[in-house]
Every structure is written in C-alpha cells, then in structure tokens.
Amino acid sequence: MIGRNDPCWCGSGEKWKKCHFPELSSKSEASKVAERYYKQYRIRLKKPEEIEGIRRACRLAAQILDKLCKRSQAGVTTNELDEYAVQLHQEAGALAAPLGYGDPPYPKSICTSINDEICHGIPDDQPLKEGDIMNIDVSVILDGYFGDCSKMVMIGDISQEKYQVCNVAYECLQRSIHILKPNILLCEIGDIIEDYATAQGCSVVNQFVGHGTGLEFHEPPQVPHHRNQLKIPLVAGMIFTIEPMINAGVREARIDPSNKWEARTADGKPSAQYEHTILITPTGHEILTLLD
Ligand code: MF3
Ligand code: CO
Q1: Residue 104 falls within a domain, yes or no?
Q2: Into how many domains does the chain fold?
Q3: Closest Cα to atom 2, ligand 1: which residue?
Q4: Is the pLDDT at 24 greater than 70, yes or no?
C-alpha cells in the first residue's frame, strides 16, 4: 500500500497527499490519466460503474469455480463438469466466455487442464482418476462484464512432484498479487514469479500470458509471468488477470495439432496454474475473484 507521504503514483514527484490523494483528485484529473493510458498503451481504465459490474461478474466466476472444484473427484468426467458449468452459468443469467471463443472456436464452456496439460484443456469423456491434478478455468460474462479465474484441484493422493508444482504456482500468484499498487511496473510481476519459480526448481511458461479484462475477455495489457521489459506503471482503475503457468520440467508448451487449443508440456512433466482478476485501487489492489 502507498502511504500519504510516498511519491504519487502519477509520476509528478509530489507526495501522494499533495497530488492524487483520493479526496483531492478531481474528475478531470482521472479522465486525463485514462486518456493517456488509452493513447499510449490501449489500456482502458475502468470507471466506478464499470468496476461495479466487473466485480459482480468476477464474484460469480469465483462462485462457479468453487462449485466445480467441489464436484471434482475420481470417476467424474470433465464433460460432466462442463455440463454443470453450463447449468450454473444459466441459473445466474450469465454466459461462458470460452464457448465459441477464438479461431477455431473453443468448443466448451470451461477449460479443464489435467497433469501435463498447461492450459486450454478441452472437457471430454475421460473420468478423473486418483493421482490427477487439474486446473479448472472459469470465465463468465454477466451483463456484458467479464470475470476470469482458475485454480487446481488434486484428486486423492498425488505425487510429490505434482504437489510441489501446484504449491509453487499458488505461491507465484499470491506473491505477485502482494506487490500490486499504483506506480509499480508491470514487469515486476514477471520478476517476482520467475525468481520464485526458478528458485524452487520449476519453470515459467512464456507462450501464454495474463491480460487486461472486464469490458472484453482479453484486453491490453498483456501480463507476462516470465521476466520481461514492460515498464508500464500500474494505475488505479486497471483490471487484469495474473495466471502463472508453472512447469515441473521445461517451460516449452506444445499445442495439440488436432484441436489447436490444448497446450501440453514438451517433456510430459506436470504443470499447474492459478488465476485471479485484480483491480488496482488508489491505495493498493483488490482481488475481484475471491469468494466472500
Ligand atoms: N483464463 C484463460 C485465458 O485467459 C481462459 C481461456 S478460455 C479459452 O486465456 F476459451 F480461451 F480457452
Ligand atoms: Co485469463
């Protein structure tokens, strides 16, 4: 969190309390920053009423994800989880963002990525089995606003290697969220994640990134989880995901040529991922995809 006497996030060099402290900031100042971020980076800073809508979409995504995780156990197929997800979206008056997304159009409503699958695993009729780890990724559209989150489920007893990679991915997300506040640079997220993951003997996938979200599924900026040079200062009103994909072995991903979606590790070793959608606030951040 920034203190009243810290330098203001806008880069003026003034103390925060003398510059953009919330009570003092005028509407026109906020819209000037928003204009600059759109011109320079194509980043849309969210207005208060948009934030309200995105908050609701994110809360729903977290609730659906939680219900899907509770349903996941040995013998259940990922198609059954997908059908349950369809029902939960319908009951809430929401749409699943993945369905029909991209080219070729993604065929299901959630992603279920098992063991060596890094991301974009397509639900099918294979039952989950003891020893599997699975990432479930839920992205909802509610009243036109987007929310995106994912987490790992562990089916029964899992190997030490799988446990480790899940833990490291979880820690990478938590540690990178912890530093978020106005004026830190976007590339600091990748520094934190790559430092931690490699110190734990894991690798960081660089072929997929986090992303701005809220008004569209994927908006600028891209949010790399690996070391990078994106010197974009975070500013209040930004909403983006962090979704580190961490591998037990090599970082390289291979995309399934038959469906052009499913990404697996090149060496067949396990991979894990956790994702939240996060809002940058004047004093720090708010995780929008937490359960209340
Ligand atoms: N959180 C994932 C992402 O942002 C969700 C992928 S859904 C898919 O890419 F449709 F793109 F597969
Ligand atoms: Co995402």
Answers
A1: yes
A2: 1
A3: 137
A4: no
